[in-house]
Design goal:
The protein is mainly alpha-helical. It contains five helices and three strands, in the order αβααββαα. It has a three-stranded antiparallel beta sheet with strand order 1-3-2. Strand 2 and strand 3 form a beta hairpin. The longest helix is centred in the last third of the chain and has 25 residues. The radius of gyration is 18 Å and the shape is elongated. The two termini are 24 Å apart.
Length: 125
């Protein structure tokens, strides 16, 4: 599992870890029941504090992405498809909100933005 920490962002390290693990789970790269590295192991591999990784794992567990069993470790939790869809929709909304702001502040007509959205949506992925 590759986690990349960037120092060129205002996002805290634990949030970078959390968002990257969520993305791996939502993309299907990590599947239900897959083990994730121990806190100590991940902290060592990405050169951060164990406390930072612990915070990320606590957030992932709270959000239902992983389950942790004392003595066994942490594993990808069974995912609720509606939850994943909601999470992805929230992400899309953030990007659309940014696009709307850019459009408004630069006098790009909403029709042009809609045309671009349609083009991106229907082009081959």
């Amino acid at each position: 599992m590759d986690i990349i920490i960037s120092s060129n962002t205002s996002k805290p390290i634990y949030e970078q870890i959390t968002s990257q693990i969520k993305a791996l789970i939502m993309s299907g790269e990590l599947k239900t029941g897959d083990p994730i590295p121990s806190m100590r192991s991940l902290a060592k591999s990405i050169h951060v504090s164990v406390i930072t990784v612990q915070k990320a794992y606590e957030d992932l567990q709270r959000d239902g992405f992983i389950s942790t069993t004392v003595g066994r470790g942490s594993f990808v939790a069974a995912q609720n498809k509606d939850f994943i869809k909601e999470e992805q929709q929230r992400k899309a909304e953030e990007h659309l909100q940014e696009a709307a702001y850019i459009g408004k502040t630069n006098s790009i007509p909403v029709e042009k933005l809609t045309e671009l959205l349609h083009m991106f949506y229907y082009e081959d992925v």
